[in-house]
Structures are given as C-alpha cells and as structure tokens.
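Consider the tokenized backbone below.
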C-alpha cells in the first residue's frame, strides 16, 4: 500500500503535545471494535507505507508492530481521520486475537447495573501468545 502524498496525509493529523494520536482499531468487515492504542508520526508513516499496523508503545517508548511477537497481526484496510484530526479509525483485518489477554477484543468488560461483567472469553492463553 503506497500513498502518493504522505505529507498531505500527515498534515491532516493533529498529534498531541507528546507527538501522539489515539487510534481505534475496528474489524473492517464486522464493525467489531478491537482496541485503542496510540500512534506517533513514525507509526503512522510505517502503517501507511507497509499496510501492517504499527503503534507507539508508551510503556516501552518505542514502535510496536502489532503481532511482531504474538503473530496476531493487523492488516490495514482503511485509514480514517476524524473531523477534528485528533483521532484515527483504523479498519483492519485482524489475524487472531487483538488483546494481550488472549481475547478477540480489548473491550471485554461490560459495566451493568449488577456490576462489571466479562462478556468475552479468553481464546488463547496469554502465555501462549508471547513465547
């Protein structure tokens, strides 16, 4: 996947004071919201030029190529910028699970009147994801 004018695309994005922007990953064909992570300019450039989603890890202070150690990759299908330019929506083709807990989505806890309820089971044991 290549873009004729990467600079024009980057000009639409408003990174915060730390040089980051929130990015929501959504399964392209089902609409399932998979996760939210942060992207830096370098992560955006890598994602747009390779077609494989790359984020910025705030805990490691480095690029995080989704699936690099787990094999649970995200292929970019569409890259959208919201109306204010301060949030990204990445429509992806998720291979396997998206969450480090081994669940398909990071959004697996629902807050209900009765309290917090886990609504998504573990599909892969976390220790099996990161060998």
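A designed sequence for it:
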């Amino acid at each position: 996947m290549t873009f004729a004018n990467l600079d024009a695309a980057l000009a639409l994005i408003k990174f915060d004071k730390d040089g980051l922007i929130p990015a929501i990953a959504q399964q392209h064909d089902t609409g399932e919201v998979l996760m939210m992570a942060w992207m830096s300019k370098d992560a955006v450039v890598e994602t747009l030029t390779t077609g494989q989603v790359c984020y910025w890890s705030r805990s490691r202070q480095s690029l995080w190529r989704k699936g690099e150690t787990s094999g649970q990759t995200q292929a970019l299908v569409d890259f959208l910028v919201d109306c204010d330019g301060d949030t990204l929506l990445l429509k992806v083709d998720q291979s396997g699970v998206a969450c480090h807990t081994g669940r398909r989505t990071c959004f697996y806890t629902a807050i209900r009147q009765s309290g917090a309820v886990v609504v998504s089971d573990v599909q892969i044991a976390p220790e099996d994801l990161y060998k």
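The chain has three helices and eight strands.
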